[in-house]
Structure formats: structure tokens, C-alpha cells
Design goal:
With 123 residues, this protein is an alpha+beta fold. Helices cover 26% and strands 24% of the residues. A hairpin with a 4-residue loop joins strand 7 and strand 8.
């Protein structure tokens, strides 16, 4: 991976880890399997790309040699089965909340959802 390239080589990005000053081309970072992601930042909802050098990456993300890509590390397999199911249900409920929020923001009215053990009723 390039580090502190010459100005003629093109635009560079810098590792977002504090006190890390490694700079590299975006394409060189991608080809070297450096971690990068897109995050929403600021009150205006701007989306920015964060790129990390090979020495740094966010917590919960690890490089998988067998898959040849970055993967999320889950520590839920150590939890009791009932708690794993509750965490999975929480994820599904959060997705449903986001879908309902998006639908309500597009509509002129927002229906009241009533959840029962047997059905979903819309009033």
C-alpha cells in the first residue's frame, strides 16, 4: 500500500484513527484490503467515507482470511439461547420501526399500528 505518495500520484485519504497520519490513495487502500465504511455525520445528515489503515479498524470488525473480506464479529454465541432469541427479536423490531417510520414520513397520515399476538391491525 502506498504511504505518503507524491503529489503527482493523485488525491489521498488519511486514516481516521486519531494520531495516525498514514495517507494513501483510496484505490490503493481498497486493493490492500484496508477497512472503509460510510457513516452519517452531522445534523445535516451528510454521509462521509471513513478509511482506516491496515493497523486500525473499528471495534467489532475483523479481517477474515478464509472469506477474504471484513466481517462483523458477534459475541452473542456465548449468551444463553433465550437471550440470543431476544436479541434477534430486538433486531427485527428495530427494522420494523424503521420501515414504519419511513412509510409514515412519506404518507400524509400515520396509521396507528396495534400489535397483538395473532395479527397486526391497522386503525
Amino acid at each position: 500500500m502506498c504511504n505518503a505518495p507524491t503529489p503527482k500520484a493523485g488525491a489521498c485519504v488519511q486514516c481516521v484513527q486519531p494520531n495516525c497520519y498514514k495517507a494513501f490513495h483510496s484505490l490503493c487502500a481498497q486493493m490492500s484490503n484496508c477497512y472503509s465504511d460510510w457513516v452519517e455525520s452531522g445534523p445535516g445528515g451528510q454521509v462521509v467515507r471513513r478509511t482506516y489503515c491496515k493497523a486500525h479498524h473499528p471495534a467489532g470488525i475483523e479481517w477474515s482470511e478464509d472469506k477474504k473480506r471484513w466481517v462483523r464479529v458477534s459475541h452473542t454465541q456465548d449468551l444463553p439461547h433465550e437471550l440470543q432469541l431476544l436479541l434477534k427479536l430486538r433486531g427485527h423490531m428495530e427494522k420494523a420501526r424503521l420501515v414504519c417510520g419511513a412509510a409514515c414520513s412519506r404518507a400524509c397520515w400515520c396509521p396507528l399500528l396495534v400489535l397483538t399476538p395473532h395479527a397486526v391491525w391497522v386503525d
